[in-house]
Amino acid sequence: MIRTRFAPSPNGPLHLGHAYAAMVAHDLARAKGGKFRLRIEDIDGERSRPEFVEEFFRDLEWLGLGWDGDVQFQSRRLADYAEAGERLKAMGLLYPCRCTRAEIAAAATAMGPDGPVYPGTCRHRPAGSDGDIRGAAWRLDVARALDLTGPLAWTDERAGPQRAQPEIFGDVVLLRKDLPASYHLAATLDDAADGITLVTRGMDLFPASHVHRLLQALLGLPVPAWHHHPLLVEPDGRKLAKRRGAPSLGDRRRAGEDGKGIVEALRQGRFPAGISLSEGLDQIP
Ligand code: GLU
Predict the structure, then answer these.
(1) What is the tens place of the pLDDT at every residue in 50-101?
(2) Beta carbon of 41 within 6 Å of any ligand 1 atom
(3) Structural domains present in the chain
(4) Distance, CA 40 to ligand 1 centroid (Å)?
(5) Nearest atom (ligand 1) to Cα of 41
(6) C or N: which end of the chain has fewer Cβ atoms within 10 Å?
(7) Substitution site in 182, 183, 206, 228 for ligand 1 pocket (most atoms within 8 Å of beta carbon)
């Protein structure tokens, strides 16, 4: 049975772009008699706020995009992420790194999907003392990991078959300095734990799936299909964002707008003035 998910981060209110993402995941599941799950990606301690989560629930009900089963919270799964991290360490695939963003930016010679590509400064440092490890982030040695797995493939429903290219990110952080997880590790483990068969998210996260496919192979997780949907963009081509004035769904709800009507317009491809759908094909490496 097909299972999709909507996985918002409670670091701000939802806006129309989120309504579109939730609608795509909801409708793909409903069209095939499957399940639509809701996951709250709330491990970004400094930015996550519980009051946004309450608003998400109200917004989704108001939009007519009800979810199936219990809501999952990443903050309750930290022990699972840490355990997977230990497994990867035991496989000799992670190494500690204490480089700062500024140091990485200064030493990087390439740009990746998330900015300057980590140049591998700490990759071959001899195992240090405990003091070295404390307060370090742990990075995945991507070349070594690919040696172990061999070439990997994955499929996006819209873009077709892909060869996994996790190396475009460089050696990604899997365990952050402040947390036994990172977005890549947590999202991959959660999709497996929740039995997600179709990972639905925006084209802006298309490159992340290369890394997730590698993690699935390393951790022996099932491989879903992916559906990266186009993004709602402003006239300058940039994603809708609350900080650039996209009205929040909560404000529209409280102003008495019709949430189901808003979703119906999105389904029919009718968007507010100045807003359009971008295929986001530039995200495909
Ligand atoms: N939490 C991410 C976001 O709000 C989505 C992650 C995902 O769907 O994998 O953009």
Answers:
(1) 999 999 999 999 999 999 999 999 999 999 999 999 999 999 999 999 999 9
(2) yes
(3) 3-77+186-283 (3.40.50.620), 79-175 (3.40.50.620)
(4) 9
(5) 1
(6) N
(7) 183
CA–CA gap between residue 117 and residue 104 (Å, rounded): 8
The encoded tokens of residue 114 equal 């998330």
Q: Which of 153, 180, 172, 168 is nearest to 87 (CA)?
A: 180
Paired tokens of 167:
């190396």
Sequence letter at residue 36:
F
DSSP character string of 10-47 = SSS--BHHHHHHHHHHHHHHHHTT-EEEEEE----TTT
| Residue bearing tokens 């040695």 | 141
**Which of ligand 1's atoms lies nearest the C-alpha of 191?**
9
pTM here? 0.96
- Taking the CA of residue 204 as reference, the ligand 1 atom at the shortest distance is 10
